[in-house]
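INPUT
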Amino acid sequence: MNKIDSAGHSIHFETQLAPLTDIIKSGKYSKIFVFADGNTSQLCLPLFQELLGDFQAFDLIETDPGEENKNIDFCIGIWKTLLDFEADRKCLMINLGGGVITDMGGFVASTYKRGIDFINIPTTLLAQVDASVGGKTGIDIDNVKNMVGAFTLPQAVFIESGFLKTLPKRELLSGFAEMIKHGLIVDQDYYKMLKKSDYKKISSDAIYRSVEIKNKVVTEDPHEKGIRKILNYGHTIGHAVETYSLIHDKNPLTHGEAIAIGMVCEAYLSSNNNNLSHDELIDISNYILTTYPKYTIKEDSFTDLLAFMKSDKKNENGQIMFSLLSSIGTCSINCSVTENEIKESLSYYNIINKNIAND
Amino acid sequence: MNKIDSAGHSIHFETQLAPLTDIIKSGKYSKIFVFADGNTSQLCLPLFQELLGDFQAFDLIETDPGEENKNIDFCIGIWKTLLDFEADRKCLMINLGGGVITDMGGFVASTYKRGIDFINIPTTLLAQVDASVGGKTGIDIDNVKNMVGAFTLPQAVFIESGFLKTLPKRELLSGFAEMIKHGLIVDQDYYKMLKKSDYKKISSDAIYRSVEIKNKVVTEDPHEKGIRKILNYGHTIGHAVETYSLIHDKNPLTHGEAIAIGMVCEAYLSSNNNNLSHDELIDISNYILTTYPKYTIKEDSFTDLLAFMKSDKKNENGQIMFSLLSSIGTCSINCSVTENEIKESLSYYNIINKNIAND
Ligand SMILES: NC(=O)c1ccc[n+]([C@@H]2O[C@H](COP(=O)([O-])OP(=O)(O)OC[C@H]3O[C@@H](n4cnc5c(N)ncnc54)[C@H](O)[C@@H]3O)[C@@H](O)[C@H]2O)c1
Ligand SMILES: NC(=O)c1ccc[n+]([C@@H]2O[C@H](COP(=O)([O-])OP(=O)(O)OC[C@H]3O[C@@H](n4cnc5c(N)ncnc54)[C@H](O)[C@@H]3O)[C@@H](O)[C@H]2O)c1
Ligand SMILES: [Zn+2]
Ligand SMILES: [Zn+2]
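OUTPUT
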């Protein structure tokens, strides 16, 4: 149980990077680059070097941390750096960081000289359980998320829980939302197991199970034509709430915090428009609201939120589409919902949130 | 003989765009964009519209003509324009122009929202016989050619000789060099046929044959690991001469003119280092030098030329690699040659060029 086979490559778990050492020592590559951000070069590079042992022959390419730097200007900078280093088509890029680094590094690698090999070592929980699988790379343009990118596969992925030790709790909680989602959309038992666990002490088994679930879904539908859309559960409303918060809140929601809110709202829609039972709705709401910090979706933001949902790149022909639960552990795609129902679901979140606060 | 099947798509010949009308009318696409440059929007769009008949529902995205605009700034402009037009993942981009338009349009389409469909309608001879096949897209960074790009396939390609009517003679001659190359590397009979023809009146059959040859080669080796390298014949030296001329000459060589020079030099290397016979060397030299305008490779440019060759992205580990003829119609890859021999081949071009001028 230390490897999952994904399209054309392996995802290695808790191997202390041993297979990576082999890849590097094979001599297949003319040069090795490690791509990291200011945080991961400080906090993750030492462990990376320790695990690789005597091999130290790489050049470090460092970028500023944060989503705001996942943009085309930084890409141009990295392409030029590779040029300056005289990187040829046989070099290897190792992306060491969270989803920003693996998304942007993957895009840069897959387009430099029409594609060089890259390997991802995700160092956040979110990047390990979500960004690590599915071949999506991307960058933002004018703050529109992932507006440019490619479907492209790494040579390998290495998931090492050791890197998570320095990750702030809030970042752990952010990635944990995707794990809850994995349980809700395809595996009731996994959801139950997560409910009993502590997000601050995630087990390797749970990470493995999340990767396994996501890998199964994306392997069936690599280009997001159908079943893969179940992974959007919580994200239609969640993304809108996240975008709004980024613009308006002093201390904006993380991705996972916003998705947690989205999952409560979309559970409401699931019970209204799909077969999710009332008890299941209450179960999901209670669990999420007691796990995640309180937030209020302001009444006067509803119009903006709907506008964000309409401009989501997943829509076609202007229709807002949802993936909704039919029970805990099963999910339907392409559900359409009226704007009024969406607003109701936002109000539902606020009301139940307040009630739980009053407990 | 009006269709060639390439990896996952068809190249249509002289169909008056009838299959394109069907594709558009199928209703598969939410929006249609035509991407053109200032010249092709003037000179090719009218014929395009005439052929498509009553269908006119597309938005035009226009860019400035010329290689200097095949860059990341223009890409960003096009991505943003697509965003402004609210282009979703189900839209179609039709690239109507020379290799600059099909290369850049293909790159933009294959990365916008991680990939939308595109169709190429090459309108220069070079783009029809060369850029039309093989799935390469790309743009220049800091004037380094095709430094960023992807291997990605169009939905279809349409080759219509009608578009060539407005193409300047010098551009015809530029594309013709690639056709001569196709004959030299794999088909002696085709080379002989071309020798008897007039580049100003290229037959559809010849274009078809060139596309067929290139398609066969790239289908065998889509990612340029081996046999595809024979297409580089004439290009190792040719590219260097082209780059030098772009920087130093008032009226720089076209790509094809430079490749023609490269083919003479590399024919010399082929007779020195491979099995090309002396008679064949003379035959190639005579034919090319009487077809293409005179040029002198300045003695004091040799060092720069070698430096350009060394920085070519096709090299590995700093070795300059050649594809050399073993006879007219057969070509070997991965031939290494000393710097002195390369200089000799440049001098050979100058000498034989002068002799022919004296005839
Ligand atoms: N490709 C996909 O399928 C996919 C899926 C989900 C998310 N994403 C993308 O991932 C990004 C979000 O990922 P993220 O949350 O990992 O963002 P991130 O990369 O910005 O990481 C979050 C923060 O944690 C820091 N960090 C990373 N590893 C650390 C460690 N081990 N210790 C201490 N600090 C560390 C980073 O420097 C950053 O400040 C978004 O851009 C999103 O679009 C992609
Ligand atoms: N993808 C590939 O496999 C491949 C192969 C070869 C070349 N290329 C690329 O192609 C580019 C060169 O192609 P090109 O020579 O077609 O360049 P181009 O697109 O710049 O066209 C040359 C000129 O002809 C004009 N033009 C185009 N069609 C016309 C028409 N029908 N009538 C009048 N004028 C017309 C253009 O506006 C331009 O000014 C280079 O960037 C090169 O890297 C790509
Ligand atoms: Zn998410
Ligand atoms: Zn060429």
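end of record. Chain A touches chain B at residues 30, 72, 76, 79-80, 83, 86, 88-90, 110-115, 136-138, 141-142, 144, 146-151, 223, 311, 313, 315-317 (CB under 8 Å).
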